[in-house]
Amino acid sequence: MSAPDTAALLDLAVEVATAAGAELLARRSDAGAVAYKTSNTDPVSEADRASERLLVDALLSARPDDGLLGEEGAARRGTSGLRWVVDPLDGTVNYLYGLGDWAVSVACEDDRGALVGAVHDPLRQETFHAARGLGAHCGDRPLAVNDPVALARALVATGFSYDAEHRAEQAGVVAILLPKIRDIRRAGGAALDLCAVASGRVDGYYEDSTQRWDWAAGALIAAEAGATVTPLGGGLMAAGPALHASLAAALAEARSGT
Predict the structure, then answer these.
(1) Of the candidates 202, 198, 234, which has an alpha carbon nearest to the alpha carbon of residue 219?
(2) Structural domain boundaries in the chain
(3) What is the CATH code for 151-256?
């Protein structure tokens, strides 16, 4: 099997993420019917589904032999050795409330993980993207994490579970961690949080209750911008190399204390 054309895959990821973002912008005033998934605070709208349909149709039209995994049910085995992992609307609650910080996330994986990734923020008209070994960019601008950053000066992003009991545990971790760092930010979307690490808008990110589609593209973008990215429970953490070790230790202590 010939090696994939990484540049073409990245171009496709950016193209379809941007198109899905335009679809979501057009639906902002009427997101359609809203249902709930894992809990009564975990919504999915017709806008989510329409965005995923657009992504699936565009990707399969361009790459009919590839596999697919999407948040709203898209699942397909491919024969090419590549799989697209898509989150058609990361930050649905923000979207439904008319807030910012929602995005479309598209990654293409091979047997080593994410090969290319794109995260499109339609409101800010920013597209973060990366290819393995080729660095990360926002548009044409190269991205680099903040490094070195001391733990006491670190601005750290996080997110919380839709499960109430798990949220209570996460709140306990924040209570222990917060006095040790500069501050916490909770924007409401893992994909953009990881891009914030990549672009230096925050120093680190952690969350232990995410799915692969939440971070497949963002984790690659953060890593290609110089972050150390490691698993954390059912999620991951990302920070510049100097901060990563101290943040990981602080989180381990906080998690053991809850």
Answers:
(1) 198
(2) 6-142, 151-256
(3) 3.40.190.80
